[in-house]
Amino acid sequence: MRRMTARPANAHQARLLQLLRDGGPNSRAQLGDQVDLSRSKLAVEVDRLLETGLVVADGLAASRGGRRSHNVRLNPELRFLGVDIGATSVDVAVTNAELEILGHINQPLDVRDGPVAVFEQVLAMAAKLRASGLAEGFDGAGIGVPGPVRFPEGVPVAPPIMPGWDGFPVREALSQELGCPVMVDNDVNLMALGEQHAGVARTQHDFLVVKIGTGIGCGIVVGGDVYRGTTGSAGDIGHIQAVPDGRQCACGNRGCLEAHFSGAALARDATEAAEQGASAELANRLEANGVLNAADVAAAAAAGDATALDLIREGGRSTGQVIAGLVSFFNPGLVVIGGGVTGLGHNLLAAIRTQVYRQSLPLATGNLPIVLGELGPTAGVIGAARLISDHLFSPA
Amino acid sequence: MRRMTARPANAHQARLLQLLRDGGPNSRAQLGDQVDLSRSKLAVEVDRLLETGLVVADGLAASRGGRRSHNVRLNPELRFLGVDIGATSVDVAVTNAELEILGHINQPLDVRDGPVAVFEQVLAMAAKLRASGLAEGFDGAGIGVPGPVRFPEGVPVAPPIMPGWDGFPVREALSQELGCPVMVDNDVNLMALGEQHAGVARTQHDFLVVKIGTGIGCGIVVGGDVYRGTTGSAGDIGHIQAVPDGRQCACGNRGCLEAHFSGAALARDATEAAEQGASAELANRLEANGVLNAADVAAAAAAGDATALDLIREGGRSTGQVIAGLVSFFNPGLVVIGGGVTGLGHNLLAAIRTQVYRQSLPLATGNLPIVLGELGPTAGVIGAARLISDHLFSPA
DNA sequence: CCAACTTTCTCCACTGAGTGGACAAAGAAG
DNA sequence: CTTCTTTGTCCACTCAGTGGAGAAAGTTGG
């Protein structure tokens, strides 16, 4: 199948495409209720969209008390590829133009293998999804990488945990390989986009998403748009000092948040506790698996292990300490906690909440929900699809 | 004189007014270079602006190698009132439509006297400026208050240092008294607007302004616009923890930045040092004036007093500690330090810079200037004038 | 089954924003 | 004085967008 190359010709068409993406099939009349245009003009623009093939007719809708309307919808053959590269695993998903996930694969991976090896794997995963009949090709792709990105060019910059990626032309290279437009962003920003599109942040304009995985990062949404900072490193909160004169961090400083709480730090602390005999529960699990991870700590805590619970609480306290500062500064309407460690569940959330509500001023916390993300591991890929669809569904 | 009531009828006119405000008198041809419109359309819009009286003819310009152009400029009789209410003093200024200060008065004041007493004083100051012939009336006024503001309504909310102001309808009340449109904002936001309009931040889109006066606050500019947060308390960084288990703060927590460094904290610490005999220099000044303030500490430090220097350095370290976190999070293109304590000058700046450059990641600090504000005490009133002019010079 | 009402869609004359070319006015340069 | 440049004005034309008329296709109630 020939891939779509058309783009909306004006802001009206872009708006209509976004309405059809977020609201599904719709009649001209219903679209007219949501957009400030006369019926005549609306019909003209819809007709033009039909001509481009981006939008197709979708039969008759039920009557609302009069003549039945002719529905239109986004072309159901459109396909977006969402890729969420983490430090230790990668998610690849195929969506339709309405950003519904049609297929999703997760595989372990090591970003430190460098961009060439990683994209070989990613492209193989994409090919597998294509081969399974979910897509004949892709109309666009969104890529998330675990580090700062110079957004306009789609190039990672100085990523601490990704040596070998600095300056690699991800956007250009993948666009060539996949034969479609590509947008690249930080994985945390994509998680924010995902939760905004289909998760807990649907109605929010100004909010933060704190992703605690192997590392720790924060997505910032201002006025509905992701804020990336001057050099693309906004939200890089892993190296904010959480504990004065605390643990030595890889960055050279002491007491960084990431050195005290993250997937990696938690695994390290749990292993230490197990080896020192502080927790029989953790020691058992260490013996059984050879290594410990966040899930082991969660399970131990659920089984009533005091040491595991303490680790979680102490981590939540450090995280809450930093978030409290961000809340005072940014005054968000919502804080979303996501990433691998969300498996720690309510214990973690409670510790974070306690610290934030204690440390920030009432005006900022008075009506501030702090909640877990709704989408789990799909937030990133949905955000990736959203990123490229926002790009393609905007005036050329 | 009748005050102007006209507003730009469309976005083109608004843009033209802003160009004339920021660039001074200009010909149609030069305006055409800066705006994407045909000469014909431009001429039409300029003619309409001339009809409203917002813009007037301003003679012939020098030739640029052909026919001389007819200049236009903003009506030179337009007057804006800029009011910057601090905790312990107030600035009132009159500007023309190009936001040049025509007259400026500063007076001591105590915000805790409440809005009625304060505005009585402010209105008297405005009347004094009017009586001196600088203005026959005001076409708009911007008001800055030292606390959070519900911006759309122009009402202070839960201001910690301003009991009695909570919910007072500042905008409505002053609009009635002055007989012109009024906009109200936090004083720190206005300082940011001022430095953006006429100070060090002229070319920046994303930057922070840290104002250290009686208290401490931060103005946030995102994409050229002031960001105020969900409840108007964004930038309220005075109660971020700077020193764990540090000094008791009025807010109930310990170690808040404001408890360790601000005009008030510095005065307190300097007095303590003088009374304990740690510094002869400070003790002398205390005896001479009865009280100590930031200027005394600055003078003592300049005279080589080690204790004073230590107070400044320690304060700069605490401030830098907090700013480092904000820089990691927000990744600004510039950080401006302003407010009363800028008299501490380079010693303070050096301490802040050291701490920020040490604690934040290279990508965020690599090309990050940290500088003192350029406008000093006029930043607030210029920002206030800018606020109301932005409002009036936008489509009705 | 028919009459009356509602909703959806199409058609079309009209308005108003905006363009770009022609041309006049005013000056500079040789 | 001629030629070239810049500025300003005029005007015919294009195109986006409106709103009303009316046809098409339903529902509801007698």
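The CA atoms of residues 318 and 390 of chain A lie 36 Å apart.
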